[in-house]
Amino acid sequence: MYIVQVASEVAPVAKVGGLADVMMGLNRELQNKGHRVELILPKYDCLDAKGLSLECRQTGVRTYFEDKWHENAIWHTCINNDQSLTLLQSLHPKLFFDRGTIYGCHDDIDRFLYFSRAVLDWLALQQETPDIIHIHDWETAAIAFLIRQGPFTRRFEKTRTVLTIHNMAYQGHCSVEDLDKIGLSGAWYDAPKRLLEDFGTSLNLLKGGIVFSDYTTTVSPNYAKEVLTPEGGKGLQLALKENLHKFSGILNGLDYNYWNTETDPHIYFPYSSSHLGNKQANAASLRDELGLQQTKEKPLVVAITRLVEQKGVDQLRHVIQVSHDKGIQCVILGAAPDPAIHYEFVDLAQKYANDPDVRILLAQEEALAHKLYAASDMFLMPSLFEPCGLGQIIALRYGSIPIVRKTGGLADTVFDVDYSGKPFTETNGFVYENADNTGIDSALDRAIQLWKNDHKKWKKLMVQAMNFDFSWNASSALYIDIYKKILKLV
Ligand code: ADP
Fold first, then answer.
1. CA angle, 76 as apex, 75 and 81 as ends, to 5°?
2. What's the predicted TM-score (pTM) here?
3. For a surface tag, which of 114, 242, 389, 453 has the fewest beta carbons within 10 Å of its beta carbon?
């Protein structure tokens, strides 16, 4: 099959969160399974393109936007050794992708509507027609209905679309006029069975993706159930229920080539589940690098996360504040897009700046994240909701035992040592239910007790965790099944 993926992130060159990891891992596996995969992203000025050779392949590709035609340039590069990446550079006077950021601009709706339209304008010029266009989140959801309109209808008659929802919290609220800008008849979409919100007055790009794509997935089976409720669906539960015949959850995998403790170039010392000795050496080096005291008495507990409400910032703050009482070392690596949360953590970071056991690092740093996964004993993920979560899956692979709230994909991947009902050999972490401080304490305290009192059992748990298989092999096969089903190949 010829599969085109259209997204707003890919690791490691344009990464904000898990979507970037998914784009890297899923595409690699689809390629390994013999499919032709083309990934298209905006050419952001903030791409981390160090060491990449970028080639301009085409200029003068025109896109309709707000009654005029604008030019784009198409660039090409290879990432992660053998993955083809096409980058669309907009030459629109508003320089949509030269903003020093991937998200968070006042005109994000315009930026990504422009991108969605431009991708189809470019694909329409190519000789080959994609079998599948796989779109991700609200940013590219408009492709699901653009493709069935105007100049694109005949051109992509045989192409089928799949939408993957990585997080229901981000939906792309827009207006009739916004759709007019990309050449759609916006007013036609202003109807309950189309883009009009069930519980609001705006149009909703993600809803449009659900209604008009040939299939919609989300990123874990458990989250696929949660989004059918008002709490999980965040206003789109009815749209999903009406389209249940073409909706399911597929667990995200992890790219084990990239996240590999034996070859990871970012960590201090390689290790594996059969040679765990170097894990302690990683911890010692990290303590040196961060200026933490060297100790064998305190487990190193980390969180690596976007600092947004969803991720349980209250519980993270709580753990920092009780870390001395609990006898742990605690490191948080996070970036906070919300200024209120950012400044609150800046204050906390200053308060603990010289603490021998606590560090709060407000940054987005890929290399440091790898070092933290490798060095840590435990990994905190106190999410209020979590579509899939990759942090806990990476932590498992790096032998850092996850302590998570039972929600979304966390419930599909972390199995409690004491309460999962599984034999110990099939467990890999600590899970709690209530999204409050007592909840996280109950799981963290059990983990600390085991770490301190039974080294042998803890080591077994680490080995079990590292040997769990959440690779893309099985999940990519499920995507291929869906592609074939909607192409009527099966
Ligand atoms: P989400 O996609 O909601 O942000 P996930 O757990 O699915 O959450 O994916 C998070 C990914 O982003 C992981 O690869 C994690 O290591 C990475 N990450 C999150 N915050 C940071 C940060 N501040 N620095 C480096 N990597 C980060």
1. 155
2. 0.95
3. 453
Atom of ligand 1 nearest to the CA of 311: 3
CA dihedral sign of residues 260, 333, 47, 162:
positive
One-letter amino acid of 67 = D
Q: Whose CA is nearest to atom 13 of ligand 1?
A: 391
Q: Which two tokens stand for residue 402?
A: 């996850």
Q: Could you tell me if the CB of 84 is within 6 A of ligand 1? A: no
- Tell the CATH superfamily of the 277-469 domain: Glycogen Phosphorylase B; (3.40.50.2000)
Phi, psi at 432, each rounded to 5° = -135, 165
Number of Cβ atoms within 10 Å of the Cβ of 173: 18
For the chain, give every residue range classified as CATH 3.40.50.2000. Answer: 2-255+473-486, 277-469
- In 395-437, which ranges are E strands? 401-405, 430-432
Q: In this predicted model, what pLDDT tens digit does every residue of 134-188 receive, in sequence order? A: 999 999 999 999 999 878 999 999 999 999 999 999 999 999 999 999 999 999 9
Q: Using one digit for the tens of pLDDT, what is the confidence trace for 91-106?
A: 999 999 999 999 999 9
Q: Which amino acid is at 370?
A: H
Measured on CA atoms in the order 431, 437, 442, 445, is the torsion positive or negative?
Answer: positive
Residue 334: CB within 6 Å of ligand 1?
yes
What pLDDT shows up at residue 82? 85
- Residue 326 to residue 319: CA distance in whole angstroms: 9
